[in-house]
Design a protein that fits this description.
about 600 residues; ABC transporter transmembrane region fold; 3 domains; six-stranded mixed beta sheet; P-loop_NTPase; ATPase-coupled lipid transmembrane transporter activity
């Protein structure tokens, strides 16, 4: 029940609204008991009139009127309570999504490296729906059930203690059977949720990589994988259903036996003249009302168990350690000049050996640096450390002499412009993507697009900069998406510029034009470039050659080109490749 306690705690901001709903529920529960009580007096008045003509017609109509008023008040209060319950449900959903979303924003990058986005969304949706279901159960069933049970047993005890005892015995019997039923259900639900997460995560991956799936004609295999997971889910559900119906049979059998005993007592006592007809009708109605809390109890315990298992991963995520700050920077001042220093940096991912080993360098303000080396050498990891996506386990990174560990993430990133190797775009407009995280006018956005050699193709779209690009920019070509990212970096105009294969998707002509724009953009900025096409880094001040997590060489491009080593080898491979291509066309 520990997750139920967490649900109650997490809803603390909504306690006031819960209190109002609870008060209305108490009134409704009391009002619902008036009708059976009033029916007793109505029946007794009719019996008096039938037996000896001493019935009071005014009293009869008064009781009928009071019963009608009680029912109407119950209807009105229930409608208000239900409306407030819907409002509570909406507010709770909003609050939970905001809380979950805020938490994910503060988690380390390593968490997202190890989790599928589809799985995270599935856990979010399941957690919210089960918590919402529990809150609805709490307001609509738990409190009313408890109050109705107490009032019903009390009234039965007042008129006939035997029926009160029998009715009361139903509750522990029903509760115990239902508890074991829902416990077995919950144990299987945890297993089912795991397969559901796997299935949802895979579907998300397939949709995101649908071109790869179709390109390798792997549709049937992917379908079989999902089909297998769904078959496992159905198998678990079948076991849940079988267990539930066995317990349900036992539960209903015990209910029928005890109800038979109650009917025998009530009818026999009335037959003996120890109960009036009105009292008999009242007791029968009260027993019938007692069945409603019993049936509700089954639903309640099922909802509690579902909330317990369904919210498990939700709360596990909320309890993860937040490694990043999450607050709006007020009165932000951009750094005029930036200096970055790595001092004996060691870094590894959660499940890897050291990716960076004793990396040390210092980049002066306005200096242009290129990181060159084989794939997997650690170049992109250095970029990620500069952005504080990860933290080294040994050594220090400094920005203008201040340790990264003392600087908020937002302070570092606000002073950084970046272009990723992957085309990171949102499914909004070109305008929104270029100005993402920034306040910019239409003219400033267009100017950035022009500098990135992107406006020529943007203005050809019917809606221009208001054209929607689709999920991850699917409606744009690779080169177009890359240039939108470059325009975003140009507009940001931060003192630190990070380019991770920024021109990898451009053709030679576009690359030359963008490079010209980049030369102007890079003036007076600290620039770090990752590039496999060495033609793009010939004008930098220094090149760091990275291999197996270490800086194995450094120097000016011309200097490294003349010195035997990885850089000169890579340069020679590219030159020879270009010469071979030109010879094939008899151009060399």
């Amino acid at each position: 029940m520990k997750n139920i306690v967490k649900i109650i705690k997490v809803a603390r901001p909504l306690y006031r609204l819960l209190g109002i709903i609870g008060f209305l529920i108490v009134i409704t529960a009391v009002m619902e008991q008036l009708a059976p009580v009033l029916s007793k007096y109505i029946v007794d008045e009719i019996v008096l009139q039938v037996q000896n003509g001493t019935g009071d017609i005014q009293r009869l109509f008064l009781m009928i009127a009071l019963a009608f008023i009680a029912n109407m008040l119950t209807t009105v209060i229930s409608s208000i309570s239900d409306r407030l319950g819907d409002h509570l449900s909406g507010e709770l959903r909003k609050y939970l999504i905001e809380k979950f979303y805020t938490k994910t924003m503060t988690l380390s990058q390593s968490y997202f490296d190890s989790e599928l986005s589809g799985k995270i969304l599935n856990q979010l949706n399941r957690g919210i729906e089960t918590i919402k279901g529990f809150s609805g159960t709490a307001t609509n069933f738990i409190l009313p059930t408890f109050l109705q049970s107490v009032i019903t047993i009390g009234l039965l005890a007042y008129y006939n203690w035997q029926t009160a005892v029998f009715t009361f015995s139903l509750f522990p019997i029903y509760t115990v059977i239902t508890y074991y039923s829902t416990k077995k259900w919950g144990e299987e639900e945890v297993k089912k949720n795991k397969h559901s997460d796997i299935s949802s995560g895979r579907i998300q991956e397939v949709i995101s990589n649908i071109k790869v799936v179709k390109g390798f004609t792997n549709e049937i295999k992917e379908l079989k994988f999902i089909s297998k997971e769904q078959a496992t889910i159905n198998k678990i559900y079948g076991k849940q259903s079988r267990t539930f119906h066995i317990f349900d049979f036992v539960r209903n059998t015990s209910l029928n036996v005890i109800l038979l005993a109650i009917n025998v007592v009530v009818f026999y006592t009335t037959f003996q003249g120890n109960l009036s007809l009105g009292e008999m009708v009242l007791i029968i109605q009260l027993v019938a009302q007692a069945r409603r809390p019993l049936f509700a109890m089954s639903f309640i315990l099922t909802q509690i168990q579902m909330a317990e298992s369904g919210s498990k991963e939700f709360f596990e995520i909320l309890e993860l350690e937040s490694t990043e700050d999450f607050e709006e920077i007020k009165n932000f001042t951009r750094i005029e000049k930036a200096e970055i220093e790595f001092r004996n940096i060691f870094f590894k991912y959660d499940t890897s050996d050291d990716v960076l080993k004793d990396i040390s360098f210092k980049i002066e303000p306005g200096e242009k640096i290129a990181l060159v080396g084989p794939s997997g050498a650690g170049k992109s990891t250095i970029i990620n450390l500069i952005l504080k996506f990860y933290q080294p386990y040994k050594g220090d990174i400094l920005l203008n002499g201040s340790k990264y560990s003392d600087l908020p993430h937002s302070q570092i990133r606000k002073n950084t412009s970046l272009v990723f190797q992957d085309n990171e775009l949102f499914s909004t407009t070109i305008k929104d993507n270029v100005s993402y995280g920034l306040e910019a006018s239409k003219e400033e956005i267009i100017d950035a697009l022009k500098k990135a050699n992107a406006y020529d193709f943007v203005k050809k779209f019917k809606k221009g900069i208001n054209t929607e690009v689709g999920e991850r920019g699917i409606r744009l070509s690779g080169g177009q998406k890359q240039r939108i990212q470059i325009a975003r970096a140009i507009l940001n105009d931060a003192p630190i510029l990070l380019l991770d294969e920024a021109t990898s998707s451009l053709d030679s002509k576009s690359e030359k034009e963008v490079q010209d724009a980049m030369e102007r953009l890079m003036e007076d900025k600290l620039v770090i470039i990752i590039a496999h096409r060495l033609s793009t880094v010939q004008n930098v001040d220094r090149i760091f050659v990275i291999d197996e997590g270490r800086i194995v060489d450094s120097g000016a491009p011309a200097e490294l080109a003349q010195r035997p080593g990885i850089y000169s080898d890579l340069l020679r491979y590219q030159v020879e490749g270009n010469e071979k291509l030109l010879k094939s066309f008899e151009l060399y």
